[in-house]
Amino acid sequence: MLEELAQSTRARLEQVLREEPGLAGRLEAAAVAACRAVSLLPGEMEPWRSAVLSLVPAGVYLLCAGLIPQAGFSLRLAVEAMVQLHYFVWQASRRGAELGDLLSEWSRRGRAFTLKMLRSVPGIPGVYRRQLARTYLELAHLTHPSAEALKLAASSPGPGVLGDLVVRALDFIAYLALHHAPLGEAGQLLDALAEAGLERSQRYLAKRLGAR
To answer: With contact defined as beta carbons under 8 Å apart, do 174 and 156 qualify?
Structure first.
């Protein structure tokens, strides 16, 4: 069974790379740019940094391999992690707490991520907050047994069916990461973000750089 799965996913990925090189290149560029933004997170954010740097490539790979619900889960978890981090930074500044202590505290409660974090994520314009919530809900929809999710799981369609959603999710991952990245290093990402189509991230970074 595992051998057959490995062969089918490898064959599906090779087909996408051969038949849809433009889309595959777009997804790869967006994933690389988002990962570059996440990689700039400072040391105290290491648990989130390492996890998201693993989840983003996995999500894009799974999407191109036709494993749609699995891709949705990986990218949903990556978005949740970045929203959680952004929320914890705000909480830490208010309470004088350490990020690791907040993560442990919320994890013990059995609800390390809540929709309250999404609705009240600080320092983000209202229109972006609504777009982020919609993006998250669309990803979450793929991880529940809805009629659409069951159909996608059975049919293994090409990545084009979710290409725009994935790029939007990667844009928000980079956007949230850039709120906490050192500005000097982040300045090198402007061109990569623009070329990858991560418009929100690019505009936010340009605004930060312009305010120096």
So the answer is: no
Q: How far apart are CA 131 and CA 169, in angstroms?
A: 10
Give residue-wise pLDDT tens across range 175-193. Answer: 999 999 998 888 889 999 9
Place of tokens 């849809």: 20
∠ CA 105-106-110 to the nearest 5 degrees?
Answer: 120
The pTM of the full predicted model, rounded to 2 decimals, is 0.92
Q: Which amino acid is at 185?
A: E
Query: What's the chain's length in residues?
Result: 212
The residues near 14 (Cβ < 8 Å, ≥ 6 apart) are none
Classify 108 in phi/psi space as left (phi over 0), alpha (psi -120 to 50) or beta. Answer: alpha
Domain-by-domain residue ranges, the chain?
2-210
Token pair 């570059």 in the structure block, residue: 36
**For position 2, what pLDDT does the model report?**
65
**Could you give the CA distance from residue 187 to residue 205 in angstroms, rounded to a whole number?**
7
Contacts of 25 (CB under 8 A, 6+ apart): none
